Automatic annotation (TrEMBL):
Alphabetical UniProt keywords: Membrane, Transmembrane, Transmembrane helix
Domain Regulatory protein YycH: 4-420
InterPro entries from the UniProt entry: YycH (IPR009996), YycH/YycI_2 (IPR042274)
Organism superkingdom: Bacteria
Name assigned to this protein: YycH family regulatory protein
Protein species of origin: Oceanobacillus aidingensis
Biological classification of the source: Bacteria, Bacillati, Bacillota, Bacilli, Bacillales
Pfam families (UniProt xref): YycH
Annotated transmembrane regions: 9-28
Amino acid sequence: MKLETAKSLLLIILIGTSLVLTFGMWNYQAEYRPLNDVESIDEVDLGGEEQEISDLVKPNDVVFKMNGEFSSYKEPEDSMQFFEDIRQWELTDIQRNDLEEDTESGAEVEIIFPTEVPLSLFDTILNVDSTLTNNTNFYVDRFSIELQEEEEVLHVQFVSADREEVVEGTIYSRTSYDELLSIFGELTEDEYEEKQLLTDAARDIYIPKEKKALTSYTYTFDSIEAVDIRNIMFSNPNVVSVSETAPGSIMYRTDNRQLNIAGYGMRFIDVAERNTEQVDNSVLQQSLNNINAHRGFTGDYRLEGFTEDSIAYRMYQFEYPVVNNSYMDLSTIYQEWQNDQLSKYNRSLVSLNTVVNTSEKELRSGEEIMNSIQQNENTADIQDVQIAYRLTIETDDNGDYVLLEPNWYQKVNNSWSVVPEPNTNTQQNLEGGS
């Protein structure tokens, strides 16, 4: 074979090999998510629903008060439907006054929230004909609607948390007046229950007198993928180091940020130097914008409490709060903010799916709960008493499940624990779960 012919043949082979390799590279698809695919990272979300303030700020009790007696709907779903109804009633003639000495009211309904909130939030929660945002530094944890029979109107009061001032308004709708009047004529019917006032607590708390039987539920559940959380919490996952700190526990970190995922929960912290300029948005609005951006409300979450730089949302199921006091709290979403920057983010990665088992549980009566609480010395520190579902992770041969079991809980120092049995140490009743 001539030398020139051999060179030509070798060149053809090299060109052909190059074409095959190039074609293979074009058609190769990696079996992992590319870290530098910024578009795919931006599209990551947790699959929840975007929420508004009115979705998150809801009452946990509605109490009808007449002639020194207290009543509520037996079913919390009915209380929530009543609240949705009164949200449509137009509130007018709003004015701020000094609070006068309490006077006896004939018939009124009190709508009670889990925590104090700025009065300005009710601009978006209720139907008001003028803004409430001018009432700065005015916080309330409830408001009342009183029947005024002579004028046949409804008188609304928001009493400040320090009980020094009151914002008042009027609902002139005759239809609304008749609707509330009708309810007060039905309080002896089966859909209502009698309540008693827990005195000497941090605030007025109303507890049903009779026993309740509620259902315990076992659920399958979905768990949010660790890689999705990583891609939300780190703008450039290429520079994130990863390690397994314990079996089933993953740690992602950069110089400033750290994300720990374990036991179906996450804890995130960012220690970067902060912007010192104050921002206009409240922590509630900052948090709402942040969580909505990655569709992080993966269940029915409601405002539990907040300060100037921190906020907590609690999971609810069947209109009852859910409690889980494990290290990775699976019943709450918690954030801390420093000006406009997120510095802490702890949350559950559990999303309930399908009910696979149920059982009935009879709870202690309200009388027993009152007696148990009044035997203890911390009554003045009690912020709330509620029936709540304890969330725990159960395991069998088929995998992990969520168990929701009802019980009576009390809130002390912003922490929920089971109402103790008579003459037992409260600390022994702290509920855990993993």
